[in-house]
Write a structure and sequence with these properties.
The structure holds 2 protein chains of 2 kinds.
Chain A (H helix, E strand, L loop, with lengths): L1 E10 L2 E11 L4 E5 L6 H8 L7 E6 L2 E2 L4 H7 E4 L11 H11 L4 H14 L15 H13 L5 E5 L7 H16 L3 E6 L2 H7 L2 E6 L2 E7 H8 L3 E9 L1 H9 L4 E6 L3 E6 L2 H12 L3 E9 L3 H9 L6
Parallel strand pairs in A: 3-8, 3-9, 6-7, 7-8
Antiparallel strand pairs in A: 1-2, 1-4, 4-5, 9-10, 11-13, 11-14, 12-13
Helix pairs in contact in A: 3-4, 3-5, 5-6, 8-11
Chain B lengths: L1 H15 L2 H22 L8 E7 L4 H9 L3 H6 E5 L2 H9 L5 E5 L3 H7 L6 E4 L5 H32 L5 H22 L21 H22 L1 H8 L1 H6 L5 H31 L6 H24 L4 H18 L11 H9 L1 H14 L5 H26 L1
Parallel strand pairs in B: 1-2, 1-3
Antiparallel strand pairs in B: 3-4
Classes of the chains: A alpha/beta, B mainly alpha.
């Protein structure tokens, strides 16, 4: 279980994380969704003792990570964003080292190494130096090193960055298996699809602030059942605002000279009337219609796309 | 404690996977020893200089002067060759000899008549020690000639007239006897008692240049290895492995202690190998082999921590490498790795012995010579290792987060 209360991390005048509060339960995958630089890695760094919080409290399985760091870290497994492995060692030797760092010894260590190698599909390549591995295989081993000691709390910091689709699917299955096994999983990502398909609960973080949190259904409810209509072209923002004010069930999320984002009830049936109104205030050159999603929620909450 | 071993095993495995690097490190002392043997021979090599003499005097004084350079120990390191002025100039300009001595015309006459005469010595600027020896010897000889003039001027003048008769020799002998008798009141009883103690020459100890150079060169290899291994922490930092260590329950200092243990083992192997090679190739006398190996390993680990601390001050791996080389080469030169302390100017030698590597070389030499095990030196290294382990652990841990 992870309990975070009013977490704040400052670097001089820069505040990386502001008053972050959430709780994640055993057996749950809690997603931390946000663009690059939002504060996801800083939050994970504070939970895993890599960084010392400026203020606030973090408890992992009841242990305060600052005051009782060693006990807290015994429960934690970290899968970092970078492939934190030794290229010149084999998969088995890497697992042996990281298992040793987690306090595993002898037969217990060997059994667990065999289990996670099997789990990650690396058993037949266990003795090769991993410099010969593909990126996807290294990612899987990176994951294996994080779970070799059967952690009760698993912190995953964008573990699928740069991974081929096949390895990504395998990794996501492995993450789900960990949660099914009772682990409390904290998963950071900036991939909407991953967050939607994987996480039981989510927090959306931007500029160090949690701007929304809840289950996927709760977050969708924040957006309503409206579609997201994005238009590109040449627009006069004031005239657009005036033209759309006459239409019901249309909300402007973002508007400037070259793009327009609208939250619209039943957009697919109302496109002709929408275009007619907008063309009086500019010229539409491109259109994208999206069903309600985390991405549309993120745009609604922050006024920008997640990958910006 | 278990993680120290785990960490050490990890580093040793990684080193084993890179045999080229390991062989390069082992190759440094071997190659250096072989080169020294090829260049300077097996332990009995001595500096060998040549003195060119232009004898324009052709008298007994010139003969005595030239002969003085081929006497005793001096004759073992300096050979004399008589040349004319032109050839002498040409050859010294070519760097063909250590020095050129020009004995002018009428030198003998000036010597016996107490007149002034000037000798001309041209030194080879490319050499330092041998021209110095020649100049010092010449200076001593001219001083001796001056005192000889004062003490036995008339007798010398008589002898210089031509070959004396038997009666003449007897008279000169009697006159010398009177001079010495007259001087006795100043000399006896002697005001200074000279006590002579003959120190038994240690015949086991090789006097060769190669053996003299070897401890310093061995530390060059140790220093390079220590510097190379210290950069490994940057590789682990870049890969993220260092950050991952911090997130485990294992202590970061245990992780560092494991790295130190691996370095200690590697340096012990390199030290043992280097000393063994030196013993075989240049007859290096090793009074206490195990102690010498322990010293190399411990002091080398100290150098490793020193380099790691230095590199932890850098902002990138590239800067760390540059900083390491910037410190490593001058310290090696000053610390007796390129020139033995005995051949350095006194000030530099004194400074060099104060450098960490120079001090280690000096202590190793003592162990090799069997002069005595300096417990204080071992204690100092242990204290340094503990202090550096704490400081480097703190410093590197800070750079990770």
């Amino acid at each position: 279980m992870i309990e975070i209360d009013q977490l704040r991390k400052q670097y001089g005048d820069v505040t990386a994380v502001k008053d972050v509060t959430f709780t994640s339960q055993p057996g749950e995958i809690f997603g931390l969704l946000g663009p690059n630089g939002a504060g996801k890695t800083t939050t994970i760094g504070c939970i895993s003792s890599l960084l010392t919080p400026t203020s606030g409290h973090i408890r992992v399985m009841g242990h305060d990570v600052v005051r009782d760091g060693v006990a807290a870290r015994r429960s934690i497994g970290v899968v970092p964003q970078e492939i934190a492995l030794h290229d010149d060692l084999s998969a088995r030797e890497n697992l042996s080292y990281w298992g040793g760092a987690q306090g595993l010894r002898g037969r217990q260590l060997n059994d667990r190494i065999a289990e996670v190698l099997e789990l990650t599909g690396l058993l037949d390549r266990a003795k090769e130096p991993i410099k010969q591995f593909s990126g996807g295989m290294k990612r899987r081993l990176n994951f294996a090193c994080g779970i070799v000691h059967k952690p009760k709390v698993l912190l995953l910091d964008e573990p699928t960055v740069g991974v081929d689709p096949q390895s990504r699917v395998r990794l996501l299955e492995l993450v789900q298996d960990q949660a099914k096994g009772g682990a409390c999983v904290l998963y950071t990502t900036h991939y909407m699809e991953e967050a939607q398909s994987l996480c039981d609960r989510l927090a959306i973080i931007d500029h160090g602030n949690i701007i929304a949190k809840g289950t996927l259904a709760e977050l969708r409810a924040l957006l309503g059942e409206r579609d997201l209509l994005r238009l590109t072209g040449v627009f006069r923002p004031d005239a657009v605002r005036e033209a759309l004010a006459r239409l019901e069930g249309v909300e402007i999320i973002q508007s400037d000279e070259i793009q327009l984002a609208l939250s619209v009830n039943d957009a697919s049936h109302r496109l002709p009337s929408l275009f007619a109104a907008i063309n009086t205030a500019g010229e539409v050159r491109g259109t994208t219609l999206t069903q309600p999603s985390l991405e549309s929620l993120f745009i609604k909450l922050t006024g920008k796309e997640l990958r910006e | 404690m278990r993680f120290i071993l785990t960490s050490a095993v990890k580093d040793l495995r990684r080193l084993r996977r890179d045999p080229v690097m390991l062989l390069t490190w082992l190759g440094i002392p071997t190659l250096v020893a072989i080169l020294l043997v090829v260049i300077f021979g097996r332990g009995d090599a001595r500096p060998n200089g040549k003195l060119l003499i232009v004898d324009e005097d052709q008298g007994i004084g010139a003969t005595l002067l030239a002969g003085a350079f081929s006497q005793g120990a001096l004759g073992n390191i300096i050979s004399i060759e008589k040349v004319d002025r032109e050839e002498g100039r040409r050859r010294i300009n070519k760097g063909d000899a250590s020095a050129l001595l020009v004995i002018p015309k009428n030198f003998t006459t000036a010597l016996v008549e107490g007149k002034s005469a000037s000798l001309q010595l041209v030194r080879n600027p490319a050499q330092r020690i041998l021209p110095n020896i020649i100049e010092e010897t010449l200076s001593m000889l001219t001083d001796a000639a001056f005192y000889l003039q004062i003490v036995a001027g008339p007798q010398l003048r008589e002898a210089a007239q031509g070959p004396p008769s038997d009666t003449g020799i007897a008279q000169i002998s009697v006159q010398f006897s009177h001079v010495i008798e007259g001087s006795r009141k100043y000399l006896a009883p002697p005001l200074i008692q000279l006590e002579t103690k003959v120190i038994q020459e240690n015949t086991d100890k090789p006097s060769g240049f190669a053996a003299l150079m070897l401890p310093g060169m061995l530390y060059l290899a140790v220093f390079f290895i220590a510097g190379g291994l210290a950069t490994d922490v940057w590789r682990e930092r870049t890969s993220g492995a260092l950050r991952r260590v911090v997130t485990t329950p294992a202590s970061f200092r245990a992780f560092l202690a494991g790295k130190m243990l691996a370095v200690l083992i590697v340096l012990a192997l390199v030290g043992a190998f280097g000393l063994a090679v030196a013993h075989v190739l240049v007859d290096l006398r090793i009074s206490n082999f195990p102690l010498a190996v322990v010293w190399i390993a411990m002091s080398g680990t100290g150098l490793y921590l020193f380099m790691m601390l230095l590199q932890s001050l850098a902002s990138t791996e590239r800067v760390a490498n540059m900083l390491g080389n910037f410190v490593l080469l001058p310290l090696s030169m000053l610390g007796g790795s390129f020139f033995p302390f005995d051949m350095m100017p006194k000030g530099f030698a004194r400074l060099g012995r104060l450098t960490p590597n120079g001090w280690s070389v000096t202590e190793l030499q003592k162990i090799l010579d069997g002069v005595g095990v300096t417990l204080a030196a071992f204690a100092a290294v242990i204290v340094f290792l503990i202090a550096a382990w704490l400081v480097v652990g703190w410093r590197v841990r800070r750079t990770v987060c």
